[in-house]
Amino acid sequence: MSHSQSKSVTKAWGEVKQSAVKNRNFQKNGKNSSDYQQALSGLNATEYQASQTGIYIENLSFTYPNSDSAILKNINLTIHPNEMIVLVGENGAGKTTLAKLLCRLYDPSQGAIIWNGQDLRSLPLEDLRSRIDVVMQDYARFPTTVRENVAFGNLPKIQDDEAIREAIAEAGLARVIEKLDHGLETLLGKQLEGGIDLSGGQWQRLAMARALLRLSPAELLILDEPTANLDPKTEHEIYNILRSLAKGRIAVVVSHRLALAKLADRVVVLEHGQIIEVGTHDELIALGGQYHLMFTRQASSYN
Ligand SMILES: Nc1ncnc2c1ncn2[C@@H]1O[C@H](COP(=O)(O)OP(=O)(O)OP(=O)(O)O)[C@@H](O)[C@H]1O
Ligand SMILES: [Mg+2]
């Protein structure tokens, strides 16, 4: 991918996040997100349950504009309500591309993505994106205070120190932030006068804190390489955070760290734009195919 392409993708991801934040002028008030969605949808409980059929990806193929080779080929997959899927596969397999199609940054060249019975193309874009939260590989590093970096996930909570500190603690950053001279008011980013920089892993945890504070009614959570900058020895802490973020919604997590795949309800293995294996970690290990190979290779490189 060229530099300018990668920039425009990053920008597009940013736009998804912004529109999600813009649309989130509602609060949870202690209800879980499905209660909230039920209230929003105006359906009674039975009707609401019946409408929650998950995501159905049907015969999907995709070619980027200005390109002539298909990046995703004939993808068929059903993601059940509340399911956590981990997408694995080698570099360039098409994982991020599939995630982008789920947010409707692009439309399929063939086939369709159906969410709770509706084609994504039939849903108003702003509405669709308000139902999705994204934490991505190129997660945002805002050159501003710790407080704002976290509260950009949920602006009505910007003065709620307790909520901000709780999100920071859950993301495993409490000790780092406590040590800073100006606490939540510390400026982050070397480009700012007096600003301090964080390590890659600390920035990533801050992005998690932002997502946690959002406590959003989002129904679909997409995480692209949430552990990319984390030390493999400490990343298991993040897994618990991921689990709590994913609770009560569909989560699609892209990861090269196969230890994370063990947490998933199901693992989907992509190779050259095609799904080659789908199943639980145990099923795929027993299958003795590509996932088994990747997992054994990775396990031995960590020892
Ligand atoms: N905007 C784009 N235009 C054209 N081709 C693209 C674009 N973005 C990605 N690609 C190509 O699509 C293919 C799949 O890329 P994608 O980013 O989906 O892979 P991935 O599985 O996420 O890889 P990685 O593990 O490295 O993140 C690659 O060959 C990539 O070069
Ligand atoms: Mg990727």
Automatic annotation (TrEMBL):
ATP-binding in keyword set: yes
Alphabetized UniProt keyword annotations: ATP-binding, Cell membrane, Membrane, Nucleotide-binding, Transmembrane, Transmembrane helix, Transport
Sections of the chain in a coiled coil: none
Keyword Transferase: no
Main location: membrane
Topology class, membrane: Multi-pass membrane protein
MF terms (GO), sorted A to Z: ABC-type oligopeptide transporter activity; ATP binding; ATP hydrolysis activity
Location within or outside the cell: Cell membrane
Domain ABC transporter: 55-297
Gene Ontology, cellular component aspect: plasma membrane
Family matches, as PANTHER family: ATP-BINDING CASSETTE SUB-FAMILY B MEMBER 10, MITOCHONDRIAL, ATP-DEPENDENT PERMEASE MDL1, MITOCHONDRIAL
Protein name: ABCB-BAC, ATP-binding cassette, subfamily B, bacterial
